[in-house]
Structure formats: structure tokens, C-alpha cells
Specification:
The chain is of the alpha+beta class and about 350 residues long. The protein has helices at about 30-35, 35-45, 75, 80-90, 115-130, 145-160, 195-215, 250-265, 315-320; strands spanning about 5-10, 15-20, 55-60, 60-65, 95, 105-110, 140-145, 180-190, 220-230, 240-245, 280-285, 325-330, 335-340, 350-355.
């Protein structure tokens, strides 16, 4: 992490710095999650923003209730309860957390309203930091289930495998499952039924707010043609994807998915992963050798991929032969909230929610 440009975490309408911690031998994940509260102290003591918070006043003071999945409780408690005790001491509050293995509300209460708000904000920061370290469970996507595109994809795969592909590092395992072709919009960490339901509701609400103003009830068709790769060397490629043909329709889709991501970001249902959505259809990915799920997290444009245990393939001849390969027209009719590592009755990922575009 660049100490001059630390990671920023947004809680509500405010931003907080997440400062790097010194490495510790044999430390637990809980130890590494805790932000540097000393560096953030001024934010809490000088200006406490509680606008819009549901703070309950009772005979003993003030109280706020938080609904977080139990997987985050250990990060709030910390090693041997140190994080929780520190929070309670510095904010002069009492934090009640359900017992291990139980779901339920976190209750923060204290005599001073300012202290309760401060403790609540610190807990939000801890949970937000911990959430970023969890593997994603769901993702928003545009399914690519056009029969014509699937047939063209099968032709593409057959033509490559019909040649002597072994010398280039290509085998059948690195091709996408044709029933799961899709464009990833963004990934989410949803760790309870309540979080899944909230994401589903937000997705449905986006129809009137986002879809209709852009599409005006008109169908959306995108042409898919050509190939591109995600690194600088065509002789050592990890991801090969089909491209969308630029034009007014593609621009509408780009506007729609960017605004969709902004909506989910504003509600803290998604983490910022890129400046704008890179719309593409992955057709080959070396991660599929070990992970055939077909759902991979998108990568920030311009950033190098993190080191992985993967075997690249030589795509030079593929790119030359199929540079302008016509995959066909794609009717874009919905956005899916899908479960990772799943298969639904239609062969696509199991749906947790859907946004109809028409």
C-alpha cells in the first residue's frame, strides 16, 4: 500500500483513511483488520455526523442497533476481546454482540449520544474492512444466452481444438461453459439472507430509476465481434474475451451498467473495483483449469493482475485467425444477481434476483 495515498473507506456520506498496519509474525486475520483509530481520532471527536441514524433514546441514555452477519462479529471483538474493550473504553459505550454461532443484532448503548455514534462509526469501518477481505458470493451480470452466440462460440472452440492446440497450452478446460457466457458488472459479498434480499430489492427498484430513462422501453441489441486479451504479451495470455462492437446501443448499455454500479456502491452493497465497467465476454480463462465456476472478479482497468498459480497459453495464432470473428447479435434483456459456484435450472448461474430491461 502507498502510505502517501492510503485506501479510503466510505461510511455513509463520509470518507475515512485505512492506514497500513505493521506486519506481525503469527498474527490472526482479526488483528490485521483493525484500522488505526489513533489516526482517525480527530474525525470522531471533532465532528460526529449522526444525521439519518436511527438512534433510540431510553432511560439509561442512547442506543443504536446494527444488523451485520455473524461472520463479522470476530473482527469487532478482536483477539481476546481487545478490539471490543478498546472501542468501549474510548467511546464510553457498551457493545453487546450475540454469542458465537448465533445471529442477531449488535447493540451499542451509552450515556452520551456522541459516544454511541462514534462507536457505531468505528464498527462500520471494521466491518467494511473485513468485508473487503471476504471472497465474493454473488455478482451482477448480463447473461449471454443467445442461441446464435452460443452456436458461434461452440464453432470457435471446435476450430481451435481441432488444431494441434496442446503446443500452445490450450485445452478444453480453459473455455467458458457456453451456458454460462456472461458480462460481469460487479461482485458482491452478501453473507446473510437479509443482505441478499436487500440487494434483490435494490436491483428491482433500478428499473424505474435507471433503466427506463435510458432505454425508454426500447429493446437493446449489441453486436459481439472480435477478440482481445488482458495483458501485453499475446504469447502468454490468461484471459481472452469477445468484444462488443462500439455504437449507440453499446453506449446505452455502458451508461446503464455504470449507473447500476454507482447505485450499489452508494448503498454499500458493492466495493469499488474499477473506474468504469469493462464490458466483455470471457471466452477463455486459465483460471478455469482449477476453477470451472466461470465467475471471476473483474479487474481494475490498467492494473496488473495479482500473481496467481496459473498456466498461460499462447494466443498469437488464435488472435490472428479470429481477430474479427463474428459471434453475432446479443439481445440484452436482463441483469442477473447470481450466486457464485452455482447452476440454475437453465444452465446459467442460480438467480437470487433479476432486473428485467423490457
Amino acid at each position: 500500500m502507498d502510505v502517501l495515498r492510503p485506501q479510503l473507506i466510505r461510511i455513509g456520506n463520509r470518507w475515512y483513511r485505512k492506514n497500513p498496519l505493521a506486519s506481525r509474525e503469527g498474527s490472526n486475520p482479526e488483528d490485521e483488520i483493525e484500522p488505526d483509530f489513533d489516526m482517525m481520532g480527530d474525525c470522531y471527536e471533532d465532528e460526529i455526523c449522526d444525521a439519518g441514524l436511527d438512534i433510540e433514546e431510553f432511560s439509561g441514555g442512547f442506543r443504536v442497533r446494527l444488523n451485520y452477519p455473524s461472520v463479522f462479529f470476530k473482527y469487532i471483538i478482536g483477539k481476546r476481546g481487545e478490539t471490543k474493550r478498546r472501542l468501549e473504553t474510548e467511546t464510553r459505550t457498551q457493545i453487546k454482540i450475540p454469542k458465537a454461532g448465533q445471529e442477531g443484532e449488535i447493540v451499542i448503548q451509552g450515556h452520551d449520544r456522541k459516544g454511541v455514534v462514534s462507536a457505531k462509526t468505528r464498527v462500520d469501518v471494521l466491518v467494511d474492512s473485513a468485508r473487503q477481505k471476504q471472497p465474493f458470493t454473488h455478482f451482477l451480470s448480463v447473461p449471454v444466452q443467445s442461441e446464435e452466440i452460443i452456436e458461434k462460440f461452440e464453432d470457435f472452440k471446435f476450430a481451435i481444438m481441432d488444431d494441434d492446440a496442446r503446443d500452445s497450452g490450450v485445452d478444453a478446460t480453459i473455455f467458458q461453459n457456453p451456458q454460462k457466457l456472461h458480462m460481469t458488472i460487479g461482485t458482491l459479498v452478501l453473507l446473510s439472507e437479509a443482505e441478499i434480499q436487500r440487494a434483490k430489492e435494490v436491483l428491482v427498484q433500478c428499473h424505474d430509476d435507471l433503466v427506463e430513462p435510458i432505454l425508454n422501453s426500447n429493446p437493446l441489441y449489441i453486436d459481439v465481434r472480435g477478440l482481445e486479451y488482458m495483458n501485453d504479451d499475446p504469447g502468454a495470455v490468461d484471459v481472452l474475451y469477445a468484444k462488443l462492437v462500439p455504437g449507440p446501443e453499446a453506449d446505452k448499455l455502458q451508461m446503464l451498467v455504470d449507473r447500476l454500479v454507482d447505485r450499489f456502491l452508494s448503498l454499500h452493497l458493492m466495493q469499488r473495483q474499477f473506474e468504469r465497467v469493462k464490458l466483455h465476454i470471457t471466452v477463455m480463462n486459465t483460471l478455469f483449469r482449477k476453477d470451472p465456476s466461470g465467475a471471476s472478479a473483474p479487474r481494475l482497468q490498467g492494473m496488473r493482475a495479482a500473481p496467481r498459480d496459473r498456466e498461460s497459453f499462447n494466443a498469437a495464432s488464435i488472435l490472428k485467425r479470429f481477430e474479427q470473428f463474428e459471434f453475432g447479435p446479443l439481445p440484452v434483456d436482463r441483469v442477473e444477481l447470481s450466486q457464485r459456484y452455482s447452476t440454475g435450472p437453465d444452465g446459467y448461474y442460480q438467480s437470487s434476483g433479476s432486473l428485467k430491461l423490457l
